């Protein structure tokens, strides 16, 4: 099959779903160029110079007139925005239109982190996000993207959904952005066409059922479940929605739509009533193919609160006492809400309101990162970490040096640099006042502490 040809069985499936006339439009839509879009980080305001226009269903989302070189923009590396496909940002509209209460959220299939950064922004200081990814290498990318985003309200875990058993009824919201057959990516990624087959669709559908069978029970009474895919077929969408309503008690949630957006609402009639799905087709929406459904757990459903543990016992994580926490909070210039932990001699800070939740998670899951890693201390002197540099926490007592774009890119390439009139010791480098990372001025030379694995390679 030629790369840009559609699989025959896929054509039949879409004809059956859309009818012949609309199928012709759908095919045309697949040949249109994709639109690049970004979502900006309100906590890292920057002058983003690309020509852009707002995405109507996403609070911080913008379509770009053309695709720039993101690698060549220091703001991209500073976490001022995330490059994300527009349809996925509909989750922003779901959260805002329903005013979904903040609390402890779970993104069960989170890498590389597009939807996690969106959820992290929505929660701000009033919530905690658990961003989970089952594949270890992908969990690492997820961690890096959330460190760049910098809000410090996230726990990154690397677990199979099965491992979440002890967290039944624990989450105010669970998002399952499921691994799928990727029909919605046929336009953006022609390789996806070559990999598609009816067998793969069946395999994905079976896997999705296994995932939601676990995800459903993790939502607490009154909490929400969001299920999404980037595929069109009903086996991976409506059938999974139906399965959820058969396995668990859920209430439907209907999302208001503006007809000009081109999003298609579908109804799924079940014994529990009518539920709603939202389909994004490339001939109707200025975004890639996508499907999402929103369900709500009844108020009385099983709910588990994080326990109060006077003694916190963990094989590697140590909770610091009240006094020590207070001193550290003052040193780092936090707002007073910080709780501190030690992990392999490095200090971590989280919002104290979520300390119990984090401790419960640490006892159950394989935690790869949480809150903000501040760094180590030698006596009273900080050896600050890159994670702290990129977080939105203050960096009191550290001198800062603002860079021009070319200097910033050289720093990000880890090129040797010299600066005039630089104070000795740790200096935070910034571009448009957004931190990029640390250097240490030793007098005769300057050491660059940008992580090797993150450096710009071209
Ligand atoms: N939510 C992500 C975002 O917005 O950037 C994209 C998630 S992608 C569609 C689905 C993810 O599910 C992949 O990262 C994949 O590694 C993960 N995955 C694969 N098999 C899984 C399984 N059995 N259970 C949970 N997640 C799985």
What does this structure look like?
The protein is built from 13 helices and 23 strands. The protein has about 450 residues and is of the alpha+beta class. The protein has two domains: about 10-295, Vaccinia Virus protein VP39 (Rossmann fold, 3-Layer(aba) Sandwich), CATH 3.40.50.150; about 400-458, Nuclear Transport Factor 2, Chain: A, CATH 3.10.450.720. Helix 1 (about 10-20) packs across helix 2 (about 20-30) and helix 8 packs parallel to helix 9 (about 240-245). The strands form four sheets. Strands 5, 6, 7, 8, 9, 10, 11, 12, 13 and 17 form a ten-stranded mixed sheet that branches. S-adenosylmethionine binds near residues 115, 134, 135, 177 and 211.
Question: SSE layout and pairings?
Answer:
Layout: H1 8-18, H2 20-31, E1 37-40, E2 52-54, E3 61-64, H3 74-78, E4 81-83, H4 90-98, E5 104-107, H5 114-123, E6 128-132, H6 136-149, E7 154-157, E8 171-177, H7 191-195, H8 198-218, E9 219-229, H9 238-247, E10 251-252, E11 264-270, E12 273-280, E13 290-296, E14 317-319, H10 322-332, E15 338-343, E16 346-351, H11 355-364, E17 367-370, E18 372-378, E19 381-384, H12 386-390, E20 400-402, H13 405-412, E21 425-431, E22 434-441, E23 446-448
Helix pairs in contact: 1-2, 8-9
Bound molecules: S-adenosylmethionine (SAM).
Residues 88, 109-115, 133-135, 138, 161, 177, 179, 207, 211 line the site of S-adenosylmethionine (SAM).
Short description:
The protein is an alpha+beta fold. The chain contains 13 helices and 23 strands. Helices cover 29% and strands 26% of the residues.
């Amino acid at each position: 099959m030629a790369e840009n040809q559609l699989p025959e069985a896929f054509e039949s499936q879409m004809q059956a779903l859309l009818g012949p006339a609309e199928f012709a439009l759908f095919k045309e839509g697949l040949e249109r160029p994709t639109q690049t879009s970004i979502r900006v980080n309100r906590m890292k305001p920057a002058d983003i110079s690309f020509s852009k226009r707002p995405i109507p269903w996403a609070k911080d989302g913008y379509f770009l007139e053309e695709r720039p070189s993101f690698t060549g923009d220091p703001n991209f590396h500073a976490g001022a925005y995330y490059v994300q496909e527009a349809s996925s940002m509909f989750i922003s509209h779901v959260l805002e239109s329903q005013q979904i209460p903040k609390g402890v959220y779970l993104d069960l299939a989170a890498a590389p982190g597009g939807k996690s950064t969106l959820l992290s922004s929505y929660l701000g200081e009033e919530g905690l996000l658990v961003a989970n990814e089952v594949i270890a290498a992908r969990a690492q990318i997820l961690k890096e993207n959330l460190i760049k985003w910098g809000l410090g309200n996230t726990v990154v875990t690397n677990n199979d959904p099965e491992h979440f058993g002890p967290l039944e009824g624990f989450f105010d919201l669970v998002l399952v952005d499921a691994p799928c057959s990727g029909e919605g990516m046929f336009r953006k990624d022609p390789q996806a066409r070559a990999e598609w087959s009816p067998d793969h669709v069946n395999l994905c559908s079976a896997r999705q059922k296994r995932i939601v069978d676990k995800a459903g029970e993790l939502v607490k009474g009154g909490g929400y479940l969001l299920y999404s895919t980037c595929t069109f077929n009903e086996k991976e969408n409506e059938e999974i929605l139906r399965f959820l309503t058969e396995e668990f008690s859920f209430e439907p949630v209907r999302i208001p739509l503006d007809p000009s957006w081109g999003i298609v609402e579908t109804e799924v009639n079940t014994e529990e009533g009518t539920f709603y799905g939202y389909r994004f087709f490339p001939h109707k929406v200025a975004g890639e193919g996508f499907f999402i459904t929103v369900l709500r757990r009844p108020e009385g459903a099983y709910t588990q609160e994080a326990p109060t543990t006077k003694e916190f016992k963990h094989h590697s994580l140590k909770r610091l006492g009240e006094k020590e926490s207070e001193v550290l909070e003052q040193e780092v210039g936090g707002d007073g809400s910080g709780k501190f932990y030690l992990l392999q001699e490095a200090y971590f800070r989280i919002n104290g309101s979520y300390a119990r939740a984090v401790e419960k998670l640490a006892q159950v899951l394989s935690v790869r990162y949480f809150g903000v890693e501040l760094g180590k201390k030698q006596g009273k002197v900080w050896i600050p970490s890159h994670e702290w540099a990129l977080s939105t926490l203050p960096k009191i007592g550290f001198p800062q040096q603002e860079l021009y774009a070319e200097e910033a890119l050289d720093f990000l390439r880890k090129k040797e640099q010299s600066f005039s009139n630089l104070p000795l010791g740790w200096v935070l480098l910034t571009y448009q006042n957004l931190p990029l990372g640390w250097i240490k001025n030793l007098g005769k030379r300057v050491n660059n502490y940008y992580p090797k694995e993150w450096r710009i390679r071209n």
